[in-house]
Structures are given as structure tokens and as C-alpha cells.
Write a structure and sequence with these properties.
By secondary structure, the chain is of the alpha/beta class. The protein has helices at 25-36, 50-60, 79-90, 115-143, 169-190, 213-223, 234-245, and strands at residues 16-19, 40-45, 66-70, 95-98, 152-156, 195-201, 255-259. Strand 5, helix 5 and strand 6 form a beta-alpha-beta unit. The protein binds NADP nicotinamide-adenine-dinucleotide phosphate (NAP).
Length: 268
């Protein structure tokens, strides 16, 4: 972890978001929209890279503070330090966005799924999300008592939390687990008015989906797979998360947001 400024103090009225896996793709789209909404941003990603530095620069160009926090969140021993560094540079984290996620090693028959791919999906998409949420919650419960800011925990799960893609069964299982974790945290944190949301993206154009982009684009054009008739963009996901994190949905918690262009609407 590196490159924090030594400011420390939370700017008055300024929310702070920690976004995991925000060096590219949906996470970057979320970080940029949260920056537009005035949040200071702690940008976590697995690997230090020029792309990550560029992400920080893009956020700072919007007039807010940003720091990068390089850590593999599947190593739970990094979680405390992630929050320590964010708090030291930006102030208390008011919003955690659990976005970092991995797909399967190889798409294929679930009868051939290997243990390593299963463990990696569960380790990042479910276990790391659970314990990062726990670290956030413990700190938020204390910090919120002396703050008027809106606090929220936002998990990026997937349409696959509810819709089976049998060629990526271990991914589906991990996202279903993450969706239930979101509900449990929603109930636990409701008494402190910390809102919890589960955003379930459908088909979003990112490096993760690059290899199947054309297949889905064709299915959208030829089969009407997505009623809104286009792939989603990281920007779309960012807009949703920024609305939720800004408290635009009062008197809600535990909601699932289907961010899928209507793909999972039952039709016949
Ligand atoms: P992506 O392009 O692969 O980006 C994922 C980011 O997460 C990468 O920057 C990656 O870092 C980081 N990351 C992965 N494992 C990490 C770890 N253990 N610790 C810290 N960072 C880690 O994926 P995406 O499409 O933007 O997806 C973002 C989230 O949305 C994921 O949870 C994904 O499952 C979910 N989602 C995506 C879609 C879609 O259509 N794209 C649909 C539904 C749900 P490195 O590059 O350094 O590995």
C-alpha cells in the first residue's frame, strides 16, 4: 500500500468510500461516479500498476481526494490495514463498496469444475466480501455515533446470484452466497441506520467479459436477451452505486438492485 497523503482529517460533510477492485472495470466506474458525488475515494486493487495510478489521477481530477491501497482482499490479514490507511488519509470510511470479484478459471461443465477455481471464487467473491464487510461494520458502528453522514455498505454481486449459468457454476454459487451475506448485514446494521444494498449487474462491458462480449452482443441484437437492448457500462453501475451511497433511497435497506437492463424480467 502506498501513496497516501498525510492529511488525516475528514473534511466536514465529506463522505469517504473504499471501493475494492477499483483499478478498472465496474469498480473504476463506481469510483468515478462517487467522486462526481463528492466522495473522497480509497481505491483498492490487487496489483500496483500504471492503470491504478491513472485511476487515482482520474478521481483527483474531479476535485476530490483519492488514495490507492494495493492489497489482495482474499488475504484477510490485510483488511485492518486497509481501513487504517484510508482513515489516516481521508477520515472514517462511510461507504464500503465490495466490488472486487473473480470469474472461473475456465468455463465448462460443472462436472469438471476444479477445487482451486471453486475456492478462488468463494475466497474473493464471498469470504473476502464477508470479512471486509465485518471490518467496515465494526468501525462504522463506532464512527457513526459522532457523525451525521450517511453510511452504507454496497455489495456488487451478480445476476448469477439468482440466475444459473451452468458453465460458471462455482461463480454462481459464490455470488448467491454474497447476496445472502448482504441480507444478513442489512438486518444487523439496520438498528444503527447503516443501509446495505446488493447490486446485481447483468452483462456489463469490462475486461472480465471481454472474451464473451460479442456472443452476448449478438444475443442482445438477435434474441432480445436484454430489454434495454445494449450491454451495460461501468458508468451505469457507478450511477446506481452513487445514488445508493448518497442516500437517495430513504427508508430502504437490504434491497437487491437488478442492474441488468431488464434481462431477468420473467417473459413469455
Ligand atoms: P474486472 O474487469 O475483472 O475487474 C475486477 C477488478 O477486481 C480488477 O481490477 C481486479 O484486480 C480486482 N480484483 C480481483 N480480485 C481481487 C482481490 N482479491 N483483491 C483486490 N482486488 C481484486 O471485473 P468487472 O467486470 O469490473 O467486475 C467487477 C465486479 O462486478 C465483480 O465482483 C464481478 O463479479 C461483478 N460482475 C460483473 C459483471 C460483468 O458483466 N462484468 C456482471 C455481474 C457481476 P487485478 O486486475 O489486479 O486482478
Amino acid at each position: 500500500m502506498a501513496s497516501e497523503r498525510e492529511s488525516g482529517e475528514q473534511e466536514a460533510g465529506r463522505q469517504v468510500a473504499l471501493v475494492s477492485g477499483a483499478g478498472r472495470g465496474i469498480g473504476l466506474g463506481i469510483a468515478l461516479k462517487l467522486a462526481d458525488a463528492g466522495f473522497s475515494i480509497a481505491v483498492n486493487d490487487c496489483n500496483d500498476s500504471a492503470d491504478l495510478d491513472d485511476a487515482v489521477k482520474q478521481i483527483e481530477a474531479k476535485g476530490v481526494k483519492a488514495i490507492k491501497l494495493v492489497a489482495d482482499i482474499s488475504d484477510l490479514s490485510t483488511h485492518g490495514a486497509l481501513f487504517d490507511r484510508a482513515e489516516a488519509s481521508l477520515g472514517a470510511v462511510t461507504t464500503l463498496v465490495n466490488n472486487a470479484g473473480v470469474s472461473v478459471f475456465e468455463r465448462g461443465d460443472l462436472l469438471e469444475v476444479c477445487e482451486a477455481s471453486y475456492d478462488r471464487c468463494m475466497g474473493v467473491n464471498a469470504k473476502a466480501l464477508f470479512f471486509l464487510s465485518q471490518e467496515y461494520a465494526r468501525r462504522a458502528l463506532k464512527a457513526k455515533r459522532s457523525s451525521d453522514l450517511f453510511y452504507s455498505l454496497i455489495n456488487i454481486t451478480s445476476s448469477n446470484a439468482v440466475a444459473a449459468s451452468v458453465l460458471r457454476s462455482e461463480y454462481c454459487a459464490s455470488k448467491a452466497a454474497a447476496a445472502m451475506i448482504s441480507k444478513c448485514f442489512a438486518v444487523r446494521l439496520a438498528q444503527e441506520a447503516i443501509a446495505v444494498y446488493d447490486v446485481q449487474p447483468g452483462l456489463i462491458e469490462t475486461p472480465m467479459t471481454q472474451s464473451v462480449r460479442d456472443v452476448y452482443q449478438n444475443r442482445i441484437e438477435q434474441e432480445g436477451l436484454v430489454p434495454l437492448a445494449r450491454l451495460g457500462q461501468p458508468d451505469d453501475m457507478g450511477g446506481i452505486v452513487a445514488s445508493l451511497a448518497s442516500g437517495s433511497l430513504p427508508y430502504t435497506t437490504g434491497q437487491t438492485i437488478s442492474a441488468d437492463g431488464g434481462m431477468l424480467i420473467s417473459r413469455f
